[in-house]
Write a structure and sequence with these properties.
The protein is α+β, with helices and mostly antiparallel strands. The chain folds into two domains: 11-189 and 399-459, DNA methylase specificity domains (Adenine-n6-DNA-methyltransferase TaqI, Chain A, domain 2, Alpha-Beta Complex); 213-373, Alpha-Beta Complex (Adenine-n6-DNA-methyltransferase TaqI, Chain A, domain 2). The protein is 34% helix and 18% strand. Strand 1 and strand 2 form a beta hairpin.
Length: 462
Amino acid sequence: MIDGLRPYPEYSHSDVPWAPVLPKGWRTERAKWLFAKMDRPVRPEDDVVTCFRDGTVTLRKNRRLRGFTEATVEHGYQGIRKGDLVIHQMDAFAGAVGVSDSDGKSTPVYSVCQPKPGINARYYAHAVREMSNSQWILALAKGIRERSTDFRYDMFGSQRLPVPAEEEQAAIVRFLDSASSKVSNFVLAKRKQIARLNEQKQVIIQRAVTRGIDPTTEFKESAIPWVGRVPSHWNILRAKYLFREVDERSESGNEELLSVSHLTGVSPRSEKNITMFKAASYVGHKVCRQGDLAVNTMWAWMGALGVARQVGIISPAYAVYRVRSGHPMMGSYVELLLRTRAYTSNFTCHSTGVRASRLRLYPEEFFRIPVLIPPIDEQNQIVGFINGETSSLDTAIARIEREIALMREYRVRLTSDIVAGKLDVREAAATLPEPLSDAEYVDDAGMLEGDSLDSEIEDSDE
């Protein structure tokens, strides 16, 4: 992608803090002279537009419908038009900046900016995201909550930005669109590999935790339509006879902060390499002790649950369950069982809410769900079997995820160098096809639902 690219012939010092040296001939200007802040009325036909952290700005229904907290009353909503530069005031530090591909409406927490003549909004979306990647926005607009900002239009408008010639802005956009498309195709192919490997894991896990691993065992009808036949010596109890809900609250808020994810189960948030908000205080958060089952009530249908390996605290909106005395259960087996597709699909049926984005698996419904209980020694054997059978799959998945991460890092560095004029792409861009239209351009983060959900799920646990 960078074959033949060279720096510009000459450079000069600039007054742009995050790009102190720019190609000679590029001028700089304050953003308020490049964009006009819009405050359009909402039309009856307008649907909600969302600005995602991957830089996509599109109708919410184009990405997915579940997982959003929807406003009961759309107070202060504003109109957005295709081609507007949209900046999420609270999330710009995490990359939530982009050009809208649709007409619609948005929350007032977005700054909606219309480019002036000669200004390519796509180029400036890249530029503002570079301000995010360099942590300039975070340093500039640090909020009262850790890892949060309030990057309002007035602050954006006062920033000096590079202003290449109009045709040069277009060349940069064309080159970056082409490079990003190649990266996205690579990532999509790798994701499909991961999906296939995860499917193989699910088949191994679901068969082992619902049918056991002894090929000579006898079976009985479980009377559970979505499970079918199970080993005849296994017990089946509703969750209310196996678990009890606990509601212990933190008095200091100093315990280890735990995350409850559909991807990683229960793990220390400090180990998560994703951007997320942190509350000013965790006093009153729920305490989760080693061996407790923690369930993210809003995302149970995605498998966002797990058994804690240590003492910590989780969101007060989550549920914590402890195995009742007299029922020997391995936490590893419980977690594997409850995260199978058979169980998560049933969680969806038991979840309640006024709309799809607000489904919750409340304790009274969780307690209705039947749980399969092999003898404790057999639980141990099942877990060991699954670990042995899936270890090679886990290794392959980790390797592919690393490849994806490296390719995305490469794209970020490439974009940074090109937006700031460290590499001259004018000749290379001239040989490329016309730039994609807003409707055609899709970043790889939106290609497969689920991949970009981890940060959103994590952010919901406050």
